[in-house]
Structures are given as structure tokens and as C-alpha cells.
Structure of Intraflagellar transport protein 27:
Amino acid sequence: MTLDNLILRNKCIILGNCGVGKSAISQVFHSDGQFPKNYTPTIHEEIYVKMMNIVDNQNINVELFIHDVSGHDLFNEFLPKYVN
């Protein structure tokens, strides 16, 4: 059996307190190591999508959905929505 252009989709949720650098980590990973000059606080959620190749097999790609969720206590009630 051969795998022709298989895409594996995965969700990564970044959780933590306000101001600890969740958005910075998300943006740096999404932009291949480039630190943004300005940061704005996440209001509710930011979603970044990054396509990556598996090094050992060029026919398999990983599509990573990075969910950067606000750390404000106000949004704690929405967290179960992201985990499912």
C-alpha cells in the first residue's frame, strides 16, 4: 500500500495565565522563528495553521492547528469547547 500525499491534522491548544507568553510562542512557531515586533493581547482566541513535512517521508504532511486561547479568567468557561 502506498501513501500519496497523506495529510495528518492535529490540534495544539496553548493554555496559561495572562501575560506569560502564549501568543509569543504561537507566533514564533508559526513564523519559523521570527519574533513579531508588536504583541497585542489575545481577546478570545487566535488560530494559526502551519503545514509541515515529515522529514523521513515526503508524502506525509502534518497540518497543525495552533489555538492560542486568552488567559483571562472570563474565558475559563469556554475551555472545554477547545479540548474536545
